[in-house]
Design a protein that fits this description.
Helices cover 28% and strands 22% of the residues. Strand 5, helix 1 and strand 6 form a beta-alpha-beta unit. The relative contact order is 0.16. By secondary structure, it is α/β, with parallel strands linked by helices.
């Protein structure tokens, strides 16, 4: 028995097969459901993908961010943190259908949760606005989700990942905090404080995100484990911020992350250990 991948083009797709006499080629027509979204010449998905980008005064970086986004995504949700530059105008010029959410509160955590609420897609991808993330990696995150994961977690330290942006002290801090989370919650993470992640929208029914700062990534990672959801790490490469200065403070935000870890440990024990899964575990739909 043989198998094949159907090219991701809705409508008619010719499939060449040998004729009965073996001397000529007959062309069969395979109809691909129109609801599938082409991702590449050999892959299509049914779920709609939303990308959430929290941004404050990132007008100079947005051209690089939007240029890297694949054209098959369903929507871009930009959460504007009361920018004083042309962030919103530039976003609308680059992506005319962009959904702009005006942030009412403050902090990255507040921005992300506001963006999640505005998403209409079944899959949500978190992408920073500083140009450090490669949007072309989104296909790897989506593949992990449609392959069986509930939460696709980006890792700069998984095999194939890397970073240009972390100082030695930040690497040490990230390793220490990651080790604590793994031991205290039964996780198997190789990276903890990284904001490039993706998940099925229904995950938000099981995971409550109630923090406002950079520690939201750690809180999300912990509560996914505590909810017993299926997690798959995705190797990711982090580049340097292109323009501007990050609002991240290694010491201040490191302390906030540690407080989240201690607070979560004091609440309730995790339901189960996160599962290691492959890319063909049967979640979602793949053509």
């Amino acid at each position: 028995m043989s198998s094949f991948l159907r090219p991701a083009v809705p409508g008619q797709d010719p499939l060449s097969t040998p004729s009965a006499n073996g001397n000529s080629i007959e062309t069969a027509v395979v109809r691909i459901p129109a609801q599938y979204k082409p991702v590449s010449s050999h892959l299509a998905i049914a779920p709609l993908v939303s990308v959430v980008i929290p941004a404050m005064n990132e007008a100079e970086n947005l051209p690089y961010v939007f240029k890297s986004l694949p054209d098959w995504i369903h929507e871009v949700v930009l959460v504007d943190g009361n920018s004083t530059d042309d962030t919103v105008r530039v976003a609308r010029e680059l992506w005319p259908d962009v959904v702009v959410v005006k942030q009412v509160g403050k902090g990255k955590g507040d921005a992300l949760t506001s963006g999640f609420a505005a998403c209409s897609g079944e899959i949500i991808v978190m992408v920073d606005a500083d140009g450090s993330a490669d949007g072309q990696e989104i296909v790897s995150y989506v593949s992990a989700l449609v392959g069986g994961a509930d939460f696709a977690k980006g890792s700069r330290f998984a095999n194939g990942g890397g970073t240009d942006d972390m100082t030695p002290i930040r690497k040490l801090g990230n390793w220490a905090l990651c080790t604590i989370v793994n031991r205290k919650f039964g996780a198997r993470y190789t990276d903890l404080c990284y904001g490039y992640n993706a998940f099925w929208k229904h995950v938000l029914d099981d995971v409550v995100l109630d923090c406002t700062g950079f520690e939201i990534e750690t809180l999300f990672n912990i509560r996914v484990v505590k909810a017993g959801l299926r997690v798959q790490e995705v190797p990711s490469y982090e580049y340097n911020r292109i323009h501007g200065v990050s609002n991240l403070s290694a010491v201040r935000d490191g302390i906030r992350v540690l407080k989240v870890i201690l607070s979560e440990k004091a609440s309730r024990r995790p339901k189960s250990r996160p599962q290691a899964i492959g890319l063909n575990s049967g979640r979602g739909e793949v053509s």
